[in-house]
Structure formats: structure tokens, C-alpha cells
Amino acid sequence: MLRVLLVRFSSIGDILLTTPLVRALRRRHPDAELIYVTKRAMVPLVADNPHLTQVIALEPEEPIAQLARRLRALQPSHGLDLHGSLRSAALRLLVRCRWSGYAKRKLARTALVAAKLDLYRGRVPVAERYFEAARRLDVHPADAADAPQFFIGAAARERAGRWLAERGLELEEGSAPLAALAPGAAHATKRWPIAHWQALAERLRAAGYRLVVLGGPEDRGAARQLGPLAESAAGEFTLQETGACLARAKVLVSGDTGVMHMATGVGTPVVALFGPTVQAFGFFPYRARATVLEQNLSCRPCSTMGTARCPLGHHRCLVDLLPDQVAAAVERLVA
């Protein structure tokens, strides 16, 4: 019996980018048991994925040895380490099966950030790098024909629809389209200036869009600064409810964040604003209807995940991306 563990503990975008591999495994091995292992907080991203047999959560504060005991009881035949962390390495030691992983290109990333020396051999998206872990199972990047998938349960769809309807944002025939904005990011250098978001909101409102701001509780401050221009759902939705809201939007404007991958997972077009990070890292929107806006600056990339402040103090990579450019990109994308 083919019983495969797929281990990816976090984060939002990384997990959704494993779903092309999940889909390819199911197509190649329709009778296999595919068991996804992730953190409890990330379970909603894969809980309704019909290609998976089971999702197992690493509970908060749970020792990795205890998780390993639970996984050993399943008697897996294969383990795919899609994380490459100390925690997943511990699982590889504690759970006996045929393990394999993928190359994270750490040297190439470091060389590109520190010396602007490009050691990458081609531009291979992370979604396709994950396939390196599944070579023994006869699946290949060519099998990843579609964008990531984010499956939404009925309860999340209903709650998001009700929230939008209560605020006059529910889609009805002939109504103004809904645009979603995601101004937040974990690190400051990935955030487009709030004044630019305000100007973009004014332009989109003038173009006939209704606006909703998405994000976590930490993004409520940014959402409030958009004032009456947009309804704020920051901190209001679960992961699945956020996906359900995105599925109802005509377009998302976002930085390089997990919300961007959530939108591609539900088929919503994305205008993505990239600053300190670059395509070589592999996290651009994958096989999706998307436009990436970025500046061709010699100081990019300056980090792999963003930092608290621009190393050079100017943050031109995002400051110089102007609201008119973004609004024009939205118009072209959804035309």
C-alpha cells in the first residue's frame, strides 16, 4: 500500500504552493493514501483538499517525538520533506519510511542577496522544486499543469457571503465589482506605503470598484488608514473565510504575502507588488492570471523574506511603484 506523508509545517504561501504536487500525486497514484502534516493553524489551507486522504496537525507545544509516534502508527511507505527544517529533519529520523526532500537553494539565495551574484540555474518556481522530493513516485514538474488550489468549505463560504452582504458588498447582477486589497506583510520592507494604498483606493473607487481590505489582526491599523474608502475585514476572517472572500473578488492587489497565493488558489486575478524579493526565489504567483510589478534596481534583492527597514534607507523598490501604475495594471488584468 502506497501511504505517503507530505510534511510542510508553514507558512500560508509555502503550503498552497505544495498543492500542485498533491494534485499530481493523486493523478499518478489514484489509490494511494496521501497524508498531509502541518501545524494546527495551517490545517484550514488543506482541510478540504479532496486529493488528500487525511490531514494531521502538529498541535501547539506538541513535542516532535509525540507527533512522530502518531505518524509511525500509520506505517507510511514514503515521506516527502517539503519543509527542510530542523523539525522535519527530526521526523525523518524518528519515522521509518523512504524519505526524500528538495533543494532549498540556500547558497544561491545568499549569493544573490549578499553579492548580487546569480547562481540559480534557470527560474524554477518553488511549486516545481517540491517535485524533487517525489521523483521516486514518478511525478514530475510537467505534471503541475495548473495553479495552486485552495478548497473552501461550505461554512466559510456562507459566513464570508453573509459578512459581505451585511456591508453591501455581495455580488449581484449589475453591481459594481469587488476588489480586494492586502496592504499587510510580516516585514516592513514588503509593505507598499500606506499613502500609495490610499491613492490606489481612491482611483479604484473612481473606476467603480467596491473595496474590501483583507489581512490578519495585525493589519487592522493599515486598514483603518484607508478609512471610508474600503470596508475592513482585517482580523475578521479565518483563513478559509479569507479565501471565500477572495473567490468573490474580481481582483486582488497585494504584496509578496500569503494572501497573494490564497487568491491564485481560488482563481482570482492578482496584481502583486514585489520589493525586496525577486523571481529567482521562486515565489511569484504560480501559473495564475497575475501581473507582477517590480522595480529594476541594483540593490534588489536585499533579503529573502523582507526586513524591518530598508538597508539603504530609501525603500525605492516599493516607494517608486506609483498608484497610477498599479491602477493601470488592475485595469489591464481584468479587462
Task: Explain this structure.
It is a single chain. The protein is an alpha/beta fold. It has 2 domains: 3-143, Glycogen Phosphorylase B (Rossmann fold, 3-Layer(aba) Sandwich); 154-334, Glycogen Phosphorylase B (Rossmann fold, 3-Layer(aba) Sandwich). The chain has 13 helices and 11 strands. It has helices spanning 12-16, 19-28, 64-72, 86-94, 106-115, 126-129, 154-166, 194-206, 220-225, 239-248, 258-266, 316-319, 323-334; strands at residues 3-7, 33-39, 54-58, 78-81, 98-100, 178-182, 210-213, 231-232, 251-255, 270-273, 290-293. The strands form 2 sheets. It has a 6-stranded parallel β-sheet with strand order 8-7-6-9-10-11, with helices on both faces. Strands 3-2-1-4-5 form a 5-stranded parallel β-sheet, sandwiched between helices. Helix 4 (86-94) links the parallel strand 4 and strand 5 (98-100). Helix 7 crosses helix 10 and helix 8 (194-206) packs across helix 13 (323-334).
For this structure, the CATH topology of the largest domain is Rossmann fold
Report low-confidence residues grouped into runs of 5 or more: none
CATH architecture group name of the largest domain: 3-Layer(aba) Sandwich
How many helix segments?
A: 13
Q: What Rg is obtained from the alpha carbons, in whole angstroms? A: 20 Å
Distance between the termini: 49 Å
Number of domains: 2
CATH class of the largest domain: Alpha Beta
Q: How does the overall form come out from the CA principal axes?
A: globular
